[in-house]
TrEMBL record:
Organism: Sinomicrobium pectinilyticum
SUPFAM superfamilies given in the database record: Concanavalin A-like lectins/glucanases (SSF49899)
Residue stretches making up the GH16 domain: 6-303
GO biological process terms, semicolon-separated: carbohydrate metabolic process
Keyword annotations: Hydrolase
Name this polypeptide is given: Glycosyl hydrolase family protein
Tree of life domain: Bacteria
Length: 479
């Protein structure tokens, strides 16, 4: 058996080479025999790659020719579709058939020929829409792994072209819906080329579709990014990939890592893969096509992932700041308080989820109206230093303030008065906590847009938190 190794990181992937692609695809899809020596010479001449990029064998044939080494260290190929022949693999795929924006999506617009998937973009009136697009969706959900497609975008205007993943298998057939234990869902956008984007630009990121406590507002974007390529993405095939793990998502273009985002606090579940193109603009260009050469799915063993994740977690943790003192740390999110009362959960700058107090002063409110309350379970009794992360502004600095009350003792500091624009930590003094349930209260002393993000109680009285800090690790109960 002959294995073609991945050359993404060396010089060029021969399978994406404009001149080699027709020959290699014909060999792979038809099962025709081709001389390995010929292919090696061709790659060396065209790309300048070293001969040892290939293992030795006499011929490449059929399925044997489609055995690839992993594109990322530790990953192995699980399944792939090279769109050989003239029909879509109905055991793996279903069609996208909804109507959205300016187009309805039709199965007739999904074509497999010339060993390539084509999603046709047509200007035609259909079910009240002026355009028709199309797309395919995996019938079976996929778990953690690395997923990659080779695609060439349409060169026209007005079409939203994308490769993405979500926990449902279609707008027309939403069951089964995959979500986490709370019912929350994540959407992973490997690339989205918006209809009004130039052909060098696309967006990537993830969306947390869980709702804020007590509202219908979604958590929203996680680590969204926009990429500007140096070449026209409609003139040649490019590989777009994402690595979905329990801790992070990595985004790749042509083997280059674009960004790592933290999903340790986001919903996680199996996902369906979507490859779609729909009209998003009223003046979209008709009679075009999005081309897909292949899609590949890889998985990694737990032991290999344990090694691979280290560098990415170190990077993500560096963004959060110190997460562990030399003592016992009780990290809390304000929105997790057992009784938030009249405080509201709000999504603020940089996707920060906070508790926000009243927006106008009212002297008739009593102290009970102004408090959010929770019971915190403490295992290790002792003296703890209080830290609170709050927001201040460049106008009316210190006016949007609140107090903390720990076991009935009021903090000597009012928070939201640190004088920096944005969210910062302030020390609030030391308190004695007993083993068992201790009562914390956030008191809206200003009744004027006070915002509380996070709270830390630590026995290491010399520790100073920075940036976001550690993950919430405290149990909340009714006091």
């Amino acid at each position: 058996m002959k294995t073609i190794t991945n050359l993404w990181y060396g010089c060029i992937d021969p399978y994406r080479s404009i001149r080699l692609k027709p020959l290699l695809k014909r060999v792979f899809c038809s099962g025709e025999k081709a001389s390995v020596n010929f292919l090696m010479i061709a790659v060396i001449l065209l790309a300048g790659c070293e001969k040892q990029s290939f293992e030795t064998s006499d011929v490449i044939t059929g399925e044997d020719a489609m055995t690839y080494t992993a594109t990322l260290p530790g990953y192995t190929l699980v399944w792939e579709d090279n769109f050989c022949g003239k029909t879509l693999d109905s055991t793996r795929w279903k069609y996208r058939t909804d109507c959205k924006f300016q187009s309805c999506q039709r199965p007739d617009n999904v074509v497999v020929n010339d060993d390539t998937l084509k999603i046709l973009l047509e200007e035609e009136n259909y079910q009240g829409k002026p355009f028709t697009g199309g797309g395919i969706i995996t019938k079976q959900p996929n778990s953690y792994g690395y997923y990659e497609i080779s695609a060439k975008l349409d060169d026209g205007y007005g079409w939203h072209q994308s490769f993405w993943a979500i926990g449902k298998s279609g707008f027309d057939d939403p069951d089964p819906i995959y979500a986490d234990s709370t019912g929350a869902r994540i959407e992973i956008d490997c690339f989205e080329h918006y209809g009004d984007f130039p052909n060098t630009k696309f967006r990537y990121g993830a969306i947390d579709w869980s709702t804020l406590r007590g509202s219908s507002v979604y958590m929203g974007s996680i680590g969204e990014g926009t990429y500007e390529a140096t070449s026209d993405l409609s003139q040649d095939f490019h590989t777009y990939g994402f690595e979905y793990s329990p801790d992070y998502i990595n985004y790749f273009l042509d083997g280059e890592l674009l960004k790592t985002i933290d999903i340790r606090d986001a919903p996680q579940h199996d996902v369906y893969l979507w490859i779609t193109s729909i009209a998003s603009e009223t003046n979209a260009t008709g009679d075009g096509a999005m081309y897909v050469d292949y899609i590949r799915a890889y998985e990694i063993s737990p032991s290999q992932y344990h090694v691979r994740k280290v560098e990415f977690l170190q990077y993500l943790d560096s963004l959060r700041g110190p997460q562990q003192s030399n003592g016992t740390d009780l990290w809390m999110e304000a929105e997790d308080f057992a009784d938030i009362n009249n405080w509201k959960v709000e999504k603020d700058i940089d996707r920060t989820v906070v508790l926000k107090g009243f927006t106008g002063f009212d002297a008739t409110r009593n102290s009970t109206d102004l408090k959010a309350t929770t019971g915190v379970v403490v295992d290790e009794p002792g003296v703890y230093r209080l830290w609170v992360r709050s927001r201040d502004f460049d106008t009316q600095q210190g006016a949007r303030k609140f107090k903390m009350i720990v076991n009935g003792e009021v903090s000597p500091v009012e928070f939201g008065t640190h004088g920096e624009v944005g969210y910062e930590w302030q020390s609030g003094g030391e308190f004695t906590l007993d083993a068992g349930v201790n009562v914390l209260e956030i008191y809206d002393s200003s009744q004027y847009f006070a915002r509380c993000d996070r709270i830390l109680l630590t026995t290491d009285t010399s520790f100073e938190p920075e940036r976001i800090g550690g993950f919430a690790n405290t149990s909340h109960v009714d006091p």
